[in-house]
Amino acid sequence: QVQLVESGGGSVQAGGSLRLSCVASGSIRKMGTMGWYRQAPGKQRDMVATIASDGDTSYADSVKGRFTISRDNAKNTVYLQMNSLKPEDTAAYYCNARVLDRPTLSWNDYWGRGTQVTVSS
User: Fold this and answer.
1) pLDDT tens across 19-43, in order?
2) Alpha helices in 1-121 (DSSP H)
């Protein structure tokens, strides 16, 4: 099994910054693409940013220029630096990872439990 644990959420005022972290642990043979998604109350879960194992990144239009995703492959960790936060960024943020499982050597998707980000105006 693989576990993803997020940290770094909290409450900030508009214009502030937060840095989210997500650590993957367990029966990991190899890490594939990792990413951050968010879900506001009553809305669907949307992609925020993803980063492939080779460092190739993708961002939602709404966060381009404000958020930066990065990863530390040695630590199986992905980060999301969020700057110039806006009230509309308020949501639960979830970490996602595609993992080559060690015992089965099959690729599977895993999710963290989420961390809340609240931005006040």
Assistant:
1) 999 999 999 999 999 999 999 999 9
2) none
